[in-house]
Amino acid sequence: MKKIFSGIQPTNVIHIGNYLGALKNWVALQDEGEAIYCIVDLHAITVPQDPKILKEKILETAALFIACGVDPSKATLFVQSSRPEHSELSWILNCFTGMGELKRMTQFKDKSGGDQDNVTAGLFDYPVLMAADILLYQTTHVPVGEDQKQHIEITRDIAQRINSKYGETFTVPEPIIKQSTARIMALDDPSKKMSKSSPNASSFIALTDTPDQIREKIKKATTDSGSEIKSSPTGEKPAITNLLRIFSGMTGREIPDIEREFEGKGYGEFKNALAEAIIEELEPIHKKFEELMADKEALHQILTQGSQKIAPLAQETLNKVKEKVGLGI
Ligand code: TYM
Predict the structure, then answer these.
(1) Where do the annotations place L-tryptophan binding (predicted)?
(2) Is the pLDDT of residue 12 over 80?
């Protein structure tokens, strides 16, 4: 049976890149095995956070998971810091991870912006905490976007290293990356990944944007030279390719089918249809989100129950590792 684990940071806003690259797949996968979905607040504090806002965002993120279709009666939802085993296993895994391996992580290089002396040790160590998240539950599959692929690879390396030194300890997980939506690009610059931390709010569409905001952002989205609505997997038309991928991800239609519909038509018509397709998909999510946020007590309860439900598995793995490594009395 598949054991699925994935996580998302409760920072800034959740955008359609997170939705198409990860969340939408989480919903599909909850029927294919045991699914555990985590709000990774410990990862969030690797960069400065306002405590009040962070707390609020944790609940908002839980509400968005459910609004997007994650069903708490099928999948387990919980907050990372509510299970101390994550930090504890992370420490142990640190002692089996090389500095050189972590220095090679492209996300660390990007996020530190070349100024490694002025970022936290937590940011450097981020992939090891992620490995602990995954390995703690003997996960078989991790649905993520392309940007997390390298972190799954290091998780596999750490698991294999410990397995070969101490005998079978961890399941070695596989990533699940849906190629067509694995890397949704920024609307204002298709050479950059759509990112929560972008200072330009027009570069992304948040799941909670209003229909008018969505229309405005799509209208403003960068386009390529020429007027054809045609994707180029080889990269000459990055902007229209990205918009077509978003259209396809939102509607479930194949890209060639969308291209056929807009043959001989201009960007204006295509962009209008795209904005409406996004609105159609996001409006019910937005509505459900507002309903869920009106009952914070219920959200608290879902997260607390989730954490309690997975406690035995987390403790079992942690005890097994401690025993193998020779910790305790
Ligand atoms: P985070 O919070 O940055 O992103 C959450 C998920 O969204 C995907 N994603 C994208 N997919 C397509 N296009 C984009 N532009 C885009 N931007 C983000 C990410 O790949 C991710 O799947 N380190 C993780 C959270 C994490 C985790 C884990 C994930 C912590 N522990 C264990 C899996 C398993 C992160 O920061 O994701």
Answers:
(1) 133
(2) no
148 and 24, same structural domain? yes
Count of CB atoms situated within 10 Å of the CB of 111? 15
The atom number, within ligand 1, closest to the CA of 151 reads 23
Q: Is 9 annotated as a binding residue?
A: yes
Residues 26 and 151 in one domain: yes
- CB of 17 closer than 6 angstroms to any ligand 1 atom: yes
Model confidence at 113, pLDDT cuts 50, 70, 90, reads confident
State whether 31 and 115 are in the same domain.
Answer: yes
Interatomic CA distance for residues 42 and 97, integer angstroms:
19
- Judge contact between 296 and 59, C-beta under 8 A: yes
User: 27: which residues sit within 8 A by CB, 6+ positions away?
Assistant: 68, 69, 70
Q: Which two tokens stand for residue 146?
A: 């392309």
Report whether 219 belongs to an annotated binding site. Answer: no
Domain that holds residue 127: 2-177+295-325
pTM value > 0.90: yes
pLDDT at 118 exceeding the cut of 90: no
